[in-house]
Amino acid sequence: MPSLDALKFADRYPFSKNAKALLREYAFSLDNVSPETLARAIHWVESALTSSKSDFFRREAERQRLNSSQVFESSLPAFALAKVFVSLLENPLYYDKLARLCADNTFSFLEAEPNKREIVLDFAGELGLDFELLGAHETGSGQWVARIPLSSYVRYPLSHPSLRLSSQRVEKGQVFVSEARMARLESEWVYAKVRESLPVNVEGIPLKYREIALEVLRRVSMGQRRALGLEGLGSVDPACFPPCMEKLFKELSEGKNLAHMARFDVACFMNEIGMPGGQIIQLYAKTPNFNEKVTRYHVEHLSGKRGRKKYSAPSCAKVREHGLCVANCPVKTPLQFYRNEREKKKQLESPEEKPETPGKEAFRPPVAKPLNKNATPNTYS
Ligand code: SF4
Question: Among 240, 316, 342, which residue has the most ligand 1 atoms within 8 Å of its CB, making it the best to mutate?
Fold first, then answer.
């Protein structure tokens, strides 16, 4: 019988070896997923897709204060099920988002650990991160805890600004890291490993799980429409936006002041996917110095209502040139991304094209499919 502490640990770090060992011990099956597991898996996916991280972290931290083994036992497979859900949605962007949420959640918990050093060092070993503990005379009054060979440090892409090599102390091919920096590095490795493990094998997964995944996606999409004031706009689906446009959209809806080219690219994109001019204008309403007359003039100009020229949605090359590309999607234009996603979503929503599979199979923790042949063998369920 695992202790409450062990269960809580597995809940905080669902990708860890300890969590996986517990999952195996309990031998869960998709035939009898508990309501707690289902609710928690959905919470993972919804939070990942909406990128509402602060609320997620707060609720996760509150959850750790519960003192019931049963609560944690009954939802142990939630993260594995969340991986099944995003895999059923067949969208690499969602795989990224779930992996990112898991990574950031890991960092948030590592930061709050009372025995942070011990756990950070344990995880380094578990993740396969090479490091050497520093002797007392090398720690720079406690500032540094370990040195990491450069090749290990840069093994995975490091997106967090604090990890930039130019900001590190590097000597003789070794990067000196503090406890906090090491935790941040590990969270990036968690991202890479969880991402590599997606999509999981969903062959034989009962149809009802696909329906739940789609329902979550619909809810997220509706929420985004509401947040962006797009309710009632049948043809525009924010859930299908490419990452660059999604980011710019979010910033606009938060009232951020976007640079001219960013505003122009968003407006052209929205115009091309069929958003009426009035709605495009409304998107800018929260931005500083909003002037409806001027915005209307520009929107009508780019849509071809004024003047002879109609501006098309930008290509990825243009978006990149404007410094607004945030991913490496396998498309040439954000519009192509949007159309592909819409098409994929339509197919997913047509159950007749996805034959129902018997729901009696035992639930195996999903088998990872490495995305490329250079990926490290996945050990994360
Ligand atoms: S690759 Fe293209 S679609 Fe994807 S984020 Fe960059 S510009 Fe947008």
Answer: 316
- Torsion, Cα of 42, 47, 53, 56 (10° steps): -30
Ligand 1 centroid from CA 316, angstroms: 5
So where are the chain's domains? 4-196, 232-350
pLDDT tens, position by position, 237-274: 888 889 899 889 888 888 888 999 999 999 999 999 98
SS3 readout for 38-61: HHHHHHHHHHHHHCCHHHHHHHHH
pLDDT, tens digit, 9 for 90 and up, residues 330-372 = 899 999 999 988 888 777 766 554 444 443 333 333 333 333 3
CATH 1.20.930 fits 4-196, yes or no: yes
- Supply the DSSP string of 277-290, one letter for each residue: HHHHHHHTTTSTT-
Task: Give the residues surrounding ligand 1 with Cβ less than 6 Å away.
Answer: 242-244, 316, 319-320, 325-329, 331, 334, 337
CA distance 175 to 152: 9
Q: Which of 322, 325, 336 to mutate to test the pocket of ligand 1 (most atoms within 8 A of CB)?
A: 325
Of how many residues is the chain composed? 381
Ligand 1, atom 4, residue with closest C-alpha: 329
- Quick check: bond before 199 cis, omega within 30? yes
* Cα 352 to ligand 1 centroid, rounded to whole Å: 32
